[in-house]
Amino acid sequence: MTGSPTTLFYFFFLSSFLFSLLSSSAIPTTVSTPTNASEYILRNVFEHHDTCYDDSFVYVKASDASKSSLYSTYSTTRDCSGRLNNHDLPDKLPTCPPGLIDLDVMPLYVEKSQISYPYANLNISVKVHSSFDTVAFRLQCLYASDGQDVYCSDSKDMYINGIKEWPCRGLHVSSKVKYPVKFSYTCFRLTSYSTYVINATVLPQKCRISTIITSPSFSHLFPDLIVNQSVSQKIIHTTDPLWAPTLAADFSDDNAIWLRVGKAPRAECDTIKVNVYKEHADDSEKVSFLETFTVKCPDNAVKWEDLSSGKYLLTAYVPIRGCKFFCEKQARGCTQCLRTHLNLVVHETRASLQWRAVQKFKDYQFEIFIVTVVLVGIFVTIMIIVLVVYIRKKMKEAEETRNIQLKDFVNTMIVYADDNKPHTECVTFLVDNLRNGANIRPVFDVEELITSENVVPSRWLIDQLSTLTKFVIVMSDCAVRILDAEESKTHYLIKARPFDDLFSPAIDFIIENVTRDPAAGRKKYAIVRFNYSPPVPANLSVLNLPTYNLPEQFGHLTAFLHDLDLADNVVITNNMSQERLTVWRATFGRVETYHNENPTWISKRWIPKENRDTLVVKRDQPATQKYQTDKDRIAASERLHLLPPTGVRHDDEDDSPEEEKEETIVIAGPRSREIPDESDDDDNDDDDDEDEEGSATIVALDP
User: Fold this and answer.
1) d(Cα 127, Cα 171) in Å, to the nearest integer?
2) 3-class DSSP assignment, residue 332
3) In this structure, how many other beta carbons lie within 10 angstroms of the beta carbon of residue 367?
């Protein structure tokens, strides 16, 4: 057999079922007599006077059993070879497809007779499962230990017409034969230690399957205790004699070899083991152990999968009574098992695609390693080149100047502390640069409160904080002190302008707003530092607001105010002229000079609350303005909220000739007065409001 016994059983069962179904469906429904139904019964019509064919059978319908020429046998090598030679078959035929044919070769014991001693024959059986014309098998000797084997000798009986022909037997069937068909021959002599190959050929398919078989010595294969019919099976079971099996290699599977073992019918075993060794290609005397296959009795085959081409040594033995495969010479009490050896040459690799791939990898692993290293090197080189090109491109893009058009004007409030006049000049210069170089509309208290009339500072501050979307916080010495909660409790910043410094309430509002929504606050508020500015205090830096050093990062400040989402590694150049930068840095120098020349300036601006003194505000010298006509004087009086001057008549009065007199109106500021302390009583609130709004008393004096 060439396939798994289970698979063949299912195939045979399915074929029989389908055949019986088709046969039964072909019976007419009107047929009811046993005579008519009997013609659909299959009958074995194989008959031969030679007992060598006794195990053969050919089935046909009962109605065809009487017909002649249903089959014919080729009982001689001449007839069988002639039939095969008529088809002009090549020396090498393809392997028959699975399920077409099974080839089974087993040893057969022949008892002693009056004319011969006991000997062994080969029981060769071919079973064909589908349509065919002719099946034939040929016995060929591969090796013989001595000249006793007649098939391996160079006898003249082996020659036909001068050509050596190996023993051959065949069967030809007609189209009326049903399947399967079994053709057996049991009369080829089996000689100990000889190796044979049995080739079964099927026509017209022109395919072939082959089996190589060998046997141990006759006494090892058929011990007298086992083949002697006078010895009961109980005695055999009790004695458990040592024996060795025949060993065959079935090549019917393209991807594997079936290892088959044969034994005497009454020989007992639990398992039969087959060791596999492979000869070294450079030294045939050395072999390497590969694996051991185990055949569980009563099975007689095991599948050897995934093997490469080469020379192999197969050894089969039966582990009976604790015998060992090999015993050392010095070992005591060790029984060596009887063994059967088969030298096997596999010309082609028989394996699955997966195994072939793995073997190819093993066979060429060094070459594959070299190729892999080269490919990896090429890949790494390409990746490095791509990376270098990418980096150079990015560097080139970084070096390229990209002009961004600022289309919108952003209203931005400048939040700062009025440290001193030089510092305020630096802030004023920042405002000018934002206005002229960054498309910003700065909201600056100097411009809004001092130059505008009737503006309440506190209301103005609240309006800006609630409506503007961008704020710039300027760090300075006084700003740091105002942010210090402990110092703010005991000190305050003296105002140098008609209104209080607005940094403290503004920064309180900003901190509260950022704390409520940090993400939105970091997009709304920014901190700027000049080169003389102190570090950002901890209570402000913890808010993680964007901080810019000016003038170096003026471009980044511009991008922030315009909400330009630029990468961190983008280099933004200052969007102002070199002349402006020079002038701006000069203002920084004046601040540093002022600090150096006035080291105690901060103590005069940042003073304790308990030491607060009266502040004297000095007005400038009276300004004079001459008015030539009464109309001009009346207009001036109305603008300055003064009473009309004496002698001035209204337009509805009669005009009288009167000599024009030159008159001068002197506008002077109020006399110096004291600004009361913030801790004064409530009865001075009206005066404080007057000072906050920048109001002053105006006095008109005649010359």
Assistant:
1) 11
2) coil
3) 9
Encode pLDDT of 142-162 as tens digits: 999 887 888 888 778 888 888
Average confidence score pLDDT of the chain:
80
| Each residue's pLDDT tens digit, 513-551 | 999 998 988 899 999 999 889 999 988 888 889 999 988
SS3 call for 522: helix
Is residue 475 assigned to a domain?
yes
Domain count, the chain: 5
- DSSP 8-state secondary structure symbol assigned to residue 64: G
Same domain, 99 and 53: yes
Domain that includes residue 173, residue range: 1-148+165-187
Q: The tokens of 136 are what? A: 């034939």
Separation between Cα atoms, residue 54 and residue 43, nearest integer Å:
16
Write the single-letter amino acid at 117: Y
Q: Are residue 337 and residue 474 in the same domain, yes or no?
A: no
Question: Is the omega angle on the peptide bond into residue 657 within 30 degrees of 0, that is, cis?
Answer: no
Write the secondary structure of 355-388 as one string of H (helix), E (strand) and C (coil).
HHHHHHHHHCHHHHHHHHHHHHHHHHHHHHHHHH
Q: What is the DSSP letter of 71?
A: E
Instruction: Give yes or no for residue 129 having a pLDDT over 60.
Output: yes
Are the CB atoms for 164 and 152 separated by under 8 Å? no
**pTM of the shown model:** 0.53
Token pair belonging to 689 = 């409001």
Tokens 């059967």 — which residue? 340
In this structure, what token pair is assigned to residue 141?
């000797």
Output the six-digit token pair for 285. Answer: 């005397």
In a domain, 406, yes or no: no
Residue 574 CA to chain centroid, in angstroms? Answer: 46
CA distance 60 to 598: 133
Task: Return the residue matching tokens 């003194």.
Answer: 613
